[in-house]
Amino acid sequence: MALIDKLVLDLDPLRTSREFRYIFTARVVSLFGLGFLVVAVPLQVYRLTGSTAQVAAVSAVLGVTTFAATFAGGVLADRYDRRRVIALARGTAGVAFAVLAVNAFLPDPKMWVVYVAAVIDGVCGGISATALMAVTPSLLPREKMAAAGALMALTGDLGAMIGPALGGVVIATGGVGVAYALAAFTTAITTFCITRLPALPPTHVADESPLRSVVSGFRYAASNRVLGGVLVCGFVTMLLAGWSVLVPEYATEVLGAGPSVVGLLYTAPAVGAVIGSLTSGWTGRLRRSGQAVFVLMAVSAAGLAGAGLTATVAVAVIGLAAHGFGDALTDIVRYATVQKHTSDEYRGRIAAVWAAQVTAGASVGAVVAGAVATSVPISAALPAYGAVGLVVTALLWTTLRTLRRLDEGSSLERVV
């Protein structure tokens, strides 16, 4: 039982912090609402235009605006009350979702409304996600950062699996207008939860222009070898985020499988990630967190390599699940390390770099995976892709010495 207690997800942040419970509830509700949008927006765009290119264009608008807004969110979170920043961003997004619902119920829905809503959603989402990450260390003690990261990761993984599925059911029974209305409703709940938090102003506000503020954030990260090392490792995890582009051809040409197996392969990493989050209790007691980051990155890369070693569905599923397992735990440990080693006056801007990595990860990884697929036969693509990750991880192990030697047990007095 003692071993199980050490492994199981640490729920102390929910038990001990009323404010964190509000944050957690807001995130859970928001993820389900956004899950409805993930299905409703592309489906409505395709129905209105009959064009996959238009679907891609709306997705690109959302992605670009989200990426850009993360840096704006970082600056805002380091200058103003973070509670107010998040509440205003989510409230504005909720209005946009309500407008989408009204537009969907019109006899002749307008595409320009969808594009405008995508811009607003991207801006608000980028700002609120960045500010939210900057808030958590103000609500919990330092030693509970890993537990908070695990809880946030678990909600993200479950939301990604359940939200779109529920969205599909809602659209099938009530149409996209109902899905948009529910997204607006859940966003209103999220906004209410955020307003229940105390005021959360930054401890220090620098007197500099927004652009210089962003630059100083990057300079701060580069000057902190632990923080900079963790963020560099984040870029490597981005390189491995494009595995999904290899799955359709691999399943068809190598496994000889149909759509049901393709769906299983896409689901496997999410299942592994959930298992990783549920068994993350040990991460809160880590002393050698830097070494753990490297080991877990290797597990993630090895999972991808192993998924393609034999032309069998079972091995592919297990390998991809191992990739998701390692990836989730890597993010949890990195999240805790970033939060512990970031000064409060820079939390928003460092959170922006983190959020930008997440936003751009799939796109950057897809480019790398595509390059691998054009260089080797598809039967060798997954092993080669994973091998690239292992090689880069080994290089970082040898070069990022400060992160590798990090001993959290001997540096607890350096609370930032």
UniProtKB/TrEMBL annotation:
<keyword id="KW-0812">Transmembrane</keyword>
<dbReference type="InterPro" id="IPR036259">
    <property type="entry name" value="MFS_trans_sf"/>
</dbReference>
<dbReference type="InterPro" id="IPR020846">
    <property type="entry name" value="MFS_dom"/>
</dbReference>
<keyword id="KW-1133">Transmembrane helix</keyword>
<dbReference type="GO" id="GO:0005886">
    <property type="term" value="C:plasma membrane"/>
</dbReference>
<feature type="transmembrane region" description="Helical">
    <location>
        <begin position="351"/>
        <end position="372"/>
    </location>
</feature>
<feature type="transmembrane region" description="Helical">
    <location>
        <begin position="55"/>
        <end position="76"/>
    </location>
</feature>
<keyword id="KW-0813">Transport</keyword>
<feature type="transmembrane region" description="Helical">
    <location>
        <begin position="88"/>
        <end position="106"/>
    </location>
</feature>
<keyword id="KW-1003">Cell membrane</keyword>
<feature type="transmembrane region" description="Helical">
    <location>
        <begin position="378"/>
        <end position="397"/>
    </location>
</feature>
<dbReference type="GO" id="GO:0022857">
    <property type="term" value="F:transmembrane transporter activity"/>
</dbReference>
<feature type="transmembrane region" description="Helical">
    <location>
        <begin position="226"/>
        <end position="246"/>
    </location>
</feature>
<feature type="transmembrane region" description="Helical">
    <location>
        <begin position="112"/>
        <end position="135"/>
    </location>
</feature>
<feature type="transmembrane region" description="Helical">
    <location>
        <begin position="258"/>
        <end position="278"/>
    </location>
</feature>
<feature type="transmembrane region" description="Helical">
    <location>
        <begin position="290"/>
        <end position="307"/>
    </location>
</feature>
<feature type="transmembrane region" description="Helical">
    <location>
        <begin position="177"/>
        <end position="195"/>
    </location>
</feature>
<dbReference type="Pfam" id="PF05977">
    <property type="entry name" value="MFS_3"/>
</dbReference>
<keyword id="KW-0472">Membrane</keyword>
<protein>
    <submittedName>
        <fullName>Major facilitator transporter</fullName>
    </submittedName>
</protein>
<feature type="domain" description="Major facilitator superfamily (MFS) profile">
    <location>
        <begin position="19"/>
        <end position="404"/>
    </location>
</feature>
<feature type="transmembrane region" description="Helical">
    <location>
        <begin position="147"/>
        <end position="171"/>
    </location>
</feature>
<feature type="transmembrane region" description="Helical">
    <location>
        <begin position="20"/>
        <end position="43"/>
    </location>
</feature>
<dbReference type="InterPro" id="IPR010290">
    <property type="entry name" value="TM_effector"/>
</dbReference>
